Batch of 2 targets.
Target 1
Amino acid sequence: MKKKDEEMNDLFDEIDDEEEIKEDIVIENDDIKDNNDKQLNNQYTTTYDKFLIDSVAVDGIQNKNEYHYILKNQMANIIDDIKLKAKENKKTIVLPETMDVRVLEAASVVLRDGIADIILIGDEKDIKVKASSFDISKAKIINPFTSELTDEFVKLFYELRKDKGMTMDMAKEMLLHDYMYFACMLVKNEYADGVVSGACHSTSNTLRPALQILKTKPGVKLVSSFFLMLVPDCEYGDDGTFLFADCGLEQNPDSEKLAAIAGSSASSFEGRSEERRVG
């Protein structure tokens, strides 16, 4: 916990403008990447499953398989609803983490199902080699090293950050070698509608470019994160669906921050439920 605290403190120290730490960005906690933690994680999952099964047994769910079946169907319904809404209002999404084959596989599914248009950042040859088992033919691939947009983005990024000590050389280096920065510049300049990142980058490395380039959503006072939690056969929430915040970014909120987090969370739940209750 201390290490994470220090990492996030360093991030916000770098972004010292109050306006730059209010972004309404949904972030996801980093997966457990250290193999040494897997055993502990599995033990925790087993214990938590048992707790949930014991808790809901009185409502007729008697075993782990039944619990997982109900939960899987409940999650599938939510995801299907999200997909339908995405198709009805199709957007262009940038995926900067093309070094991760899981991202390329996900891109192929999104394109196949017509959920969004996709921009991939990286070397086209390398991406196609990694994605040889998937169909990403409908994706647009942009290589920062060869793109005609790069020089324009370098100048714009420099102008955005020159008061923070940014130089033209620094701007170019960051845009060429950290694809998240290039992705955010695509959104900033309306070549795309959004970015999805975090598969192989830490929370701070995902959040920093967005805060520095995209800034904050008007009216939002604090950066916060949330988890979507599902509980089968539950009368509370929205048919057992809850949004828990903040679960990974703001670790010690005071009353004012809690109020800001509650407001952002209610807005994030909009569209999922007509009635939003904060507790």
Note: The first strand starts at residue 92 and ends at 95.
Target 2
Amino acid sequence: MAAFDFTPLLRTQYEAELLIEYQQKGSYTRQATWVKPVNQANVARFRKLIGRIDLTMKAAQAEIPITGGQWDKVEVSPTAYYARSLIDDLQEADFTDIDSRRGLVMAQAMGCGVKTDSIIFTAARDSLPTAQKYNSGTADGLSMTLDKALWLRGALTKAFVPLMDTVVFISADEWNELVLTPQFANADYVTDLPWVAGAQAKRWLGLLWVELPAVPTDGTDNFCLCWHRYAMGYAEQKAITASVTFVDDRDSHQIIHKMSGGAKRLWDVGVFEIACRRPS
């Protein structure tokens, strides 16, 4: 048996710290996405607007005509994901130290965040119409340029996508190219949004530009994604939980981390992709 009962400590302090770390810094894409919990059928239902609502006139006592715009239902089901860690009995005393425990908390929260980012990025790119892509999925030999940024800004405006709550996710490669552009370099850093703490973020061209450690890539090109919050839906049953048990034959405590999530694109015209060549 273990020298002391370590399980209650992890079930309280560790899980609380893990959830806070994940919610604050685990996934930046989740913070920029419409998130809903699932119902008893393990499905989250989102509503998307098809078309645009236009106003019109009517004669006195006449019926008000339907002038476009219909609400459609989109169902999203989450998938469960797991990660397992073992803490040896001899390491437990060290793990009760707040700094040692925080190292594991940050690592696991980051792992769950990367998985969440991957789920949302995959859904954003899945069968995305060609009209929503710059270079149609193949970079023109250039990284992120002013022309590409202006194309994105214009495409959003033409599609009547509100710039507020629209976020552009780029990698360090594109960020390093943009800071050489005076217009971007002179833009103010964003410091008033708690969810971008720990990341580089700027408000430019009316959009929020956020640097991520990694965006989708095929090894040659990076695929930067931009979407409005209500253009992407993310369903989750549990954000992240930790189950702790003692394994006798390993003389260790086993921590099983679990999260469940699923994503779908709700609004095609609210999602854009820009292909950028990776530096050689």
Note: The longest strand covers residues 252-265.
